[in-house]
Every structure is written in C-alpha cells, then in structure tokens.
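Exercise: predict the fold of this chain.
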Amino acid sequence: MKKTIVFCSVVLCLSITSITTAHKLTMDHRQAETLAADFFQPFFTALKTGDLKALKSSMSPEMYQRYRVLLEENQEYSRFLRKYYHDTRLSIGNIEVIDDHIDVELILERPHGKAGSVHVKLVHPSAGIDLNDSEMVEYTSDESIKMPEAIDDAAGWQIDR
C-alpha cells in the first residue's frame, strides 16, 4: 500500500512538473512582428492619451506591482504621459522570439532629433504551455481545466519589462 501511495505521488509530481515547465514559442518571425504591431499600436495610443486603464491591462501582474503606486496614486500621471508623449514618435524596432517570450525593441523619437530605445518582454500567460505535448493534452482534457487562449491573439499578451 505504501509503495502504491509513493508511486502515485511521484507520478503526480512529474505530471505537474511537465505541465509547468516552459516550452519555446512555436512562432516564426513574421508572426511575432504581426503580434507586436497588433499589441503595441493600442499601447502607444494609451501612452499618448494618458489612458492608465489601458496601460494597466497591458502589463503583466509583476510589472503592474512595480508601477502600482505610480498608476494608482499619482493624480498627475495621466497628464504627464499626454504631455511627455505628445510629439514623440513611437515605433517598433528589432523583434526576437526567445524561448517563452518575444523581445521587442521600442524606439522613441523625440522632437529635435532626440531618440532612444528600450527592450521589453512581451509575454503570454499560456505561452509556456505546449499544446502538442500529449501529456498536456491528456491532462487538460479534464473539463475543470481551462484551455489557454490562442497565443497568436495580441489581446492575451502582456508587457513584462
């Protein structure tokens, strides 16, 4: 009886480990470019209009926690964003699919020739799940488990810097 319990415990642990282990994104460069454009167009608009609600919804939970005080308690932050990004041209530079995220270079071109760039991670809560993994499909066939959203839909992605 003890051996059966130990065996079942080990199998359960291995099953959970295989589910939570991150897998590489199966996305080519063109798909990543399209996804980044679909994601960042509304993000750039939110920066220029100071739409804090849209900015919050585009952040990963970890990133949101880092900026929570600024987003929730700074009464002037929306106005600051509108003023700061008013004449700024925002665009996407290099894009690279790296393991379970997409590295995106954001380029900011300010008036009078000033420019800069920042790299951000575009992540998806379900991106590390391999739907081609037979163990994963078998495990998720249980109706109590919610299948992840399609990772090629920009709506499910978040920024994690």
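Check your answer against the key: DSSP finds six helices and four strands in the chain.
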